[in-house]
Amino acid sequence: MIVGGPASQLLSGRLARELDAELALTEYRTFPDGEAFIRVLDEAVDEVVIVQSTPTDTDFIYLLQLVDAMDVADRVTAVVPYFGYARQDKRFNPGEPITSRALARAIDVDRIITVNIHSEEVLSYFNAPVDDLDAAPLIGGKLESLGSPLVVAPDMGAVDLARSAAESMGIEYDYLEKTRISGEEVQIKPKKVDARGRDVVLIDDIISTGGTMAEAINLLKQQGARDVYVATVHPVLAQNAITRLMKAGVKSIIGTDTIEKGVSAVSVAPIIAKALQE
Ligand code: R5P
Questions:
Q1: In sequence order, what are the residues at sequence separation of 6 or more whose Cβ sits closer than 8 angstroms to the Cβ of residue 54?
Q2: How many CB atoms within 10 Å of residue 170?
């Protein structure tokens, strides 16, 4: 039985269809004092899969509530497609918490599935066995209609993602490299490939404020790129991120449904279904 939380209703429905599994109905509300309440209206079966991304603190509470509500099942898997706080993966200064570790330890289930978690370190914080799935080839498939764009990571940290999306389609990939020309001047451009006259797809695991991507779009346009698209696994798109990207001249924004937004045109349901079947 698939139990979808408030943040992953569409994805849990798609997953239930992929697996031909029962989809539980949940209801939720907020008490006047702000506390979250959730209830699964269908009776738990032996094997339950909870699907709930945690882009907000309340979504994390819902996840914990669902895990507790399903403690009558024999086996519970938590699918957390977007695991919030994964960027807080280490103690950068004394006195700081490793927030992702505190949250990961609180999820008491038999198995965990995440998608392109920001830091591999976080995987070691869960108490249950965890599989981190790669959605980049699904994004690569979506790029087919664009011909042979150049796939570019905005920094070296996202180059594996660019490779994974591009290789599945047999297209070129690169990353933006910063070179110091002098004390005052830095040059940022694709390391190997010339973007002039080419359509470019910038790809990153998360787009949050859109600042990283907006800067990269501007740079590539200055360097003569034709249309610039942005793609991301996790479209956090906080505050005015969409406007920032549009103002920078993005052609279109491609995201997955790990976070359910208007740009979530790629579903990760097939790779989650495959992992659950395996
Ligand atoms: C950071 O390490 C991530 O991979 C993204 O590059 C970052 O979260 C993007 O943030 P923003 O959209 O706020 O620039």
A1: 7, 60, 63, 80, 82, 83, 84, 85, 103
A2: 8
Beta strands in 83-149 (DSSP E): 111-115, 130-133
Rounding to the nearest 10 degrees, give the CA dihedral for residues 161, 107, 3, 142.
Answer: 0
Q: Is residue 157 lining ligand 1, measured as CB closer than 6 Å? A: yes
pLDDT tens per residue, range 70-117: 999 999 999 999 999 999 999 999 999 999 999 999 999 999 999 999
Q: Which residues are catalytic?
A: 178
Stated pTM of the model: 0.96
- The C-alpha atoms of residue 238 and residue 254 are separated, in whole angstroms, by 15
Distance from residue 138's CA to the centre of ligand 1 (Å): 20
**Residue 65 class from Cβ within 10 Å (0-12 exposed, 13-18 middle, 19+ buried)?**
buried
